[in-house]
Amino acid sequence: MDTRQRYRTYADRIAPVSPAYAAWARSVDDDLVALLDELPATQRQPELLFAVARRLGADPTDVASLRTLGREARPALVAALTTATVQANDPRRLAPVVPVLAALSAASDRPIGLLDVGAAAGLCSIPDRVTLDHRQPDGPAGAPGSLVRVHTAVAGPAVHLVADVTGTPPEPAASPIRIGARVALDPEPIDPAAPGALERLVEAVPPEATDRTALMAEALRATLVAPPVRIRGRVPEDLDRALDALPDDCEPVVLTTGTLVYVPGAGRQRLVDRLRERRVRWVALERTGILAGVAATLPADVEAADPDAFATLSLDGRALAVSDAFGTRVRWFGRALG
Question: Strand 318-323 to strand 329-333: parallel, antiparallel, or no bridges (unpaired)?
């Protein structure tokens, strides 16, 4: 898929929730396409361009402002895109992840030592601070679907997530996830206590998505209670250094949520290989198809083009479920967690 088609496809997908971002994506002209094509493929993501553009002063409610920025501030835009990462790490992505981490926690006599890769400020480093409900399909005659509480957060600041589920979801957790240590690995980690941290995190969030911004603010408050140890680095290069920062009395678990699309393909495979060599557990919610080994374990009827199969949830490289981009609709395959 070339750059222009990539942005058209993104526009079609985002239009129902963000007319502003859809208009920006459709406004990408020949000059912007040429600018983007100078960059590595991992740096051409629409969310990345839009976040950097907003950081440089472009207004997403002004459709012409993106082209203007590319024309009038081209060197600054190219320089920023070259090293930038999307740092939202939407906490909604924890909805598919929490049942898996709860199962790992219950099966171990040690608390989890969580390594959150691409963590930004650590909004996905707080699975123990998520109260999660599963909403089953609608009942007869359009009756609302029933809610099942599958995880109750530890005491203190927390977030409440609801996921619409189909298939065979996991059984509710008997107790909260036990986290003994948290490490956040990111090329540009954000201190959740720093002034402007939330503003930086929501740069990639469409301006219409005020509910997402509010949820991220709640997650940031929860993160402040138990902030991760921040390590500046990338995968696979800095994986070992980050894992070695976890205490020996914890069960190491690596978490990636929407991160590996920004890692070149060869780097993704080196990461997978190293995780196997180190024999650490790995929970991933990543775009369907970008991890060949995981894709090979999907049921035959899963279509990557299906919006409800945009991401694949996996444990140690084995697919457990598919979901929409943010984990709000999850189809579980009924496979054992562990």
Answer: antiparallel
